[in-house]
Design brief:
Distance between the termini: 43 Å
Number of domains: 2
Strand order of the largest sheet: 3-2-1-4-5-6-7
CATH topology of the largest domain: Rossmann fold
Order of helices and strands: EHEHEHEHEHEHHHHEH
Strand content: 5-15%
Radius of gyration: 19 Å
Largest sheet: 7 strands, parallel
CATH architecture of the largest domain: 3-Layer(aba) Sandwich
Length: 290
C-alpha cells in the first residue's frame, strides 16, 4: 500500500515543531491525505509560510491553522489544544515532533541550563501535549499519538547526553501510555525517522569534533554529503500511524527506514503478543550466555 492510499479525511491533527524539517513534511502529507491540521512552533513567521503553502493545496473542507507556542510551557500547550478543539473537526491525531539536540560536549562541561532546557522541550513538551490532548481523545474513545524518537534512544550518544536521555525517556513514555490508554482505543507509537539532513545535523557539524567527538562528526559529514534519510520516509510512516489501517498497533518504536511497516497490519496480532519494536533489557540467556 502506498502513502497516498491512507486517508485522513475528516480528522484533525496537531503537529508540534511543524514550521520546518520533518514536522513540516508530516504536515504536508497529512493535508494531502485529507486532514485538517493545527501547526505549532515558536517561529510564527515560518509557521505562516507553511500555512500559506499548505493552504493552497488544501480542499475547501480542510483547515490549516497555526498557533505560536512553546511546548516546554504547560499553559502554551493547553492553549494550542484548546485552539484546535475550537476549530478542528475531530482531534484524533497528535504528533509530538518538536525537539532540540541541546548542548554538545562532555556532561561535566556543558551548560547546565541548556541541558535542562533540552529535557524541558524534548520530554516535558511531549508530556504537556499528552496531558492536554488525552481528555479529548478519551471522550471520543479513539486517538492516534505519534512521538518522534531519535538515535539516542536506542544506542549511546556520547557528548549529546541531554538529547539521548530525553529521547530514551520518550520511548519508554510511549509504551507506558500505550498501556494506560489501550481501553480507550488510543494508539501511541514512536517513530525513528533515520539520520535526517536538517538543522540538527547542521548544529553537529558547526559544533565540530571537539564538542561532538571525532567519530560522530565524521559520520555527520558523510551523512550530509550522501543526503541522509529522506524526510518523506518519516512523513509516510507518520501518515500510516495516523490512519485507520494502523488501528491496534500501539506501544511500538518503528523505524521509517529499516522496518517493513507497510505490512504491519497483516501481522497485528503477532506483534501485539511480542516485544518486537520495543526497548527491553537484554539478559544473558538472550545471547546464549547462561
Amino acid at each position: 500500500m502506498n502513502e497516498t492510499d491512507y486517508s485522513l479525511a475528516g480528522r484533525g491533527a496537531i503537529i508540534t515543531g511543524a514550521n520546518q524539517g520533518l514536522g513540516r513534511a508530516i504536515a504536508e502529507h497529512f493535508v494531502r491525505a485529507g486532514a485538517s491540521v493545527l501547526l505549532t512552533a515558536r517561529d510564527e513567521r515560518l509557521l505562516k509560510q507553511v500555512q500559506d503553502e499548505l493552504g493552497r493545496s488544501a480542499k475547501p473542507s480542510q483547515k490549516v491553522l497555526i498557533h505560536r507556542g512553546d511546548v516546554s510551557n504547560r499553559e502554551s500547550c493547553q492553549a494550542a489544544v484548546d485552539h484546535a478543539a475550537r476549530e478542528l473537526p475531530d482531534i484524533s491525531i497528535l504528533v509530538n515532533n518538536a525537539g532540540i539536540y541541546g548542548p554538545k560536549g562532555p556532561l561535566e562541561e556543558v551548560n547546565w541550563d541548556e541541558w535542562q532546557r533540552a529535557i524541558e522541550i524534548n520530554l516535558f513538551g511531549t508530556v504537556h501535549m499528552f496531558r492536554a490532548v488525552i481528555p479529548l481523545m478519551k471522550e471520543r474513545r479513539y486517538g492516534k499519538i505519534i512521538n518522534l524518537s531519535g538515535g539516542g534512544a536506542t544506542a549511546p550518544l556520547p557528548r549529546i547526553s541531554a538529547y539521548a536521555a530525553s529521547k530514551a525517556a520518550v520511548v519508554r513514555l510511549t509504551d507506558t501510555l500505550a498501556e494506560e490508554l489501550r481501553e480507550w482505543k488510543i494508539d501511541v507509537n514512536a517513530i525513528a525517522p533515520g539520520a535526517l539532513n536538517t538543522r540538527l545535523l547542521d548544529e553537529v557539524i558547526s559544533a565540530g569534533p571537539e564538542k561532538v567527538g571525532k567519530a560522530f562528526y565524521e559520520r555527520s559529514l558523510k551523512q550530509r554529503k550522501e543526503g541522509g534519510a529522506p524526510l518523506e520516509k518519516g512523513a509516510s510512516l507518520a501518515t500510516f500511524l495516523a490512519a485507520r489501517e494502523s488501528d491496534g498497533i500501539t506501544g511500538r518504536l518503528i523505524s521509517a527506514v529499516w522496518d517493513d511497516w507497510k505490512n504491519l497490519p497483516s501481522r497485528r496480532e503477532r506483534i501485539a503478543g511480542s516485544d518486537v519494536y520495543t526497548l527491553r533489557r537484554i539478559v544473558p540467556k538472550d545471547r546464549g550466555m547462561e
